[in-house]
Amino acid sequence: MKTLLGYADQISVTEGDEISFHISSETAEAYDATIVRIINGDLNPAGSGYREEEVPGTAWRVQGRTQKVHPGSCIMVDAAVPLEKLAAGWSLSVLARPTLPESSGADGAGQVMFSLRDPVSGGGIEIGIRGEDGAYAMVQAAQGCVVCAAGVPMRRHEWYRVRVTLDPARNELTLTQGALESCAGIADSAAITVACGIEPAWTPAARIIIAARATAGGDRVFSGFYNGKLEAPCLSDHAGAVIGQWDFAIGIDGQDICDHGPFRLHGRTWQMPARAMTGHNWNGTVRSWQDAPEQYGAIHFHEDDLVDACWDSDFAWRVPPGLKSGLYAARLRSATDEDHIPFVIRRAPGTGHAPLVFILPTASYLAYANEHLAIDAALAERVHDHVPVFGTSDVFLAERREFGASLYDRHSDGSGIMISSRLRPVLNMRPKYQSWLGGTGSGLWQMNADTHIIDWLEHEKFDYDIITDEDLDREGLHALAPYRCVMLASHPEYVSTRMLDALAAHRAQGGRLVSLGGNALYWRVVYHPAIPGVMELRRCEVGNGWITDPGESCHAFGGEYGGLWERIGRPPHKTLGSGFIGQGFDRCTYFRRQPDSDNPRVAFVFEGMKGDIIGDFGLIGGGAAGIELDRANSAKGTPLNTLVLARSEGHTNTYLPSTCALLINYAGQGAAQSDLVRAEIVFFETAEGGAVFSTGSIAWSGSLSHAGYDNSVSRMTGNVVRRFIDPTPFELPAAAARPVSF
Amino acid sequence: MRPNAPRIDPTDLGPVREFRACPIGLHSPALEAVLNILRTGTMGGKYCIICLEPHRKWALARLSGIRGMPPVPVPGVEYDDLVEAEWDIFRRRWEAETGTRLPAEFDGPASPGPAPRNTGGEAR
User: Which listed residue, A42, A52, A224, A570, has the most CB atoms within 10 A of its CB?
Assistant: First the structure.
């Protein structure tokens, strides 16, 4: 039973920083809190054992309390509305493209497109959608209400212009619902007038909320969330003079909402609805909202948008001097539950640095945060050839959808989730977590798989520091410059432009790069420029779980075109020597040495190693080669001096080519029948005296601790890291080898 | 069932024996075909496994197929071995699909055979 939930305000801190922890105790019971350093998060009894170390002086007893999550996005207009201007009547128009038109909202009272109501009494006006009724308008007076509904449902994904007029002189409330494009045989436009002899019972406390309604539950607690796009809401007085005219095409990359009207009724978005969305007038000639913002005047709202849980802080901790850089967590223990809230402690500035830096891929952790793939979609058994296993956290999230989902999941209206955040409990970004994605055995994925790398670094007594993707995105080369060697984790799939630029700049100064995973540097993401821990993905051209709608492939955060780095012109092959080729999630296998491994340039890699087989053991699927695999391909950017040291084999037909590697479907592409999907361990020297080593397999980290860390995977990794932290420059070969491609 | 959907031949027990011996790993084309049939269907009611104690104890459950409704445990069905859980679900699905009960030879534990290895431990 999951009863302790929480998140930290930061993911990366250093000496002197204060980090606060925002906790909900579902049972309101007290809990013990302790800061621990996470060394190995794997509970598998066949492994080297779970290990965490308590930080002395960090034991607290905290009285728990329950904190709620309120998902759902809208626009809040905090300025007071000149209600006196509306006394003689008003009209409201808005363009709407509903995505759940059959729904009457979570409480059955309607999906609200526009409301101007008193938060306590509810007095005021509201325009929305109620399933079969289509659009409705409601005037709420003190003693009752009048509702005018179109009486015909809207079609999903179609644009409508909804216009409502209240004429007190005639005692009439009129609503028109007009489809911008009609559909033969479907009557979905209507004009209805009803008698309305009452007046809205609003007070000066009444506020405009777009896409939801205010509640008495608090300033930031809304109801009646709308699902779909809205565009160009406009409120006028009885004579047609504008009271408020909101233009969503202005400030697309921010949270501010501009009002062109005379009363400056500017607003702000709440829980980040999707901006940079095509409007009713998008004509297909532009692909970027920056080229024609007037065609991107829509915002897509969702009842389950969540960026910030906005919980109050329960305790805070100032990082003392002298702590080793590493992965830490606030460990919470109550009578009924335990939780770990992770964060990284970086080495303090001015205290030197290690030769090696391990980048914890927190962007990729966010991409997978609270994923519901095996709960929502039928793919799970097909991609890993066994029945999915759900842990306590998975079952909890299956019921408690308010904690949001991942960038692989869809909103309740079927649209893809494009924004993820760590300002909420992320239950699969935890030590001890087992994931259905992690193959057989330990079931390790992302953060918990990466603890095996930390565990190995500790065992091998390497001097290393840890930073996060957020540090790299924010600081660029500055975050890497002190380090001779950069180490990438098991699955750093999602990276920003600034992160890639930083890796390139590090290489340009002779830096070395060790990649201990698979499917790395694959998708472009963009961090929010002002709100740390919030990240956007426009999953375009090829999908995974979902795909962007036409014209919506540029991020709202800054405007960059999204999708695969390979399609943006910076394939991972250029940085790592290999790139994603395919995946499967059943059994992992092993690597076999290839002729290039005898090249004297890589003799150091194989020191002390015997035999041709590498990694036919491991906690992730039983081998070092598996889950997601990368291959060299000079046609996609693998440098011509790359050596393919080893190649995986023995995969099952569950392993299939990735969509980017597959231009057309045909039979026989399973890895048992085709040689295409293989992992390759590659090495190349760079022109600046550095070098790159990539294992091309997510499962690699699960093999490091096998047989007391005395094994081929550990030895090979150690050989590489020791040479890569050695300042002696690498020399380029006299002549490049032949291209490696297929 | 779609009119042209492939069906499982309940008299062909070869794929069943193969699955019993090695539920996860390289499969014959015949077993792959059986598994693809057994794994079709809507999400509602699909079997899944809930972990009760990590690496020690699991329970059988069914997906609800409804957003916001968690998997529903099948009362009284727990496992202390994930491979046995995999077999139990395979058996339930196979028998439901074919309308045929598997013969007595499948009632006991899996016959002890050599554990499938990738390389036979050629190197460490």
Answer: A42
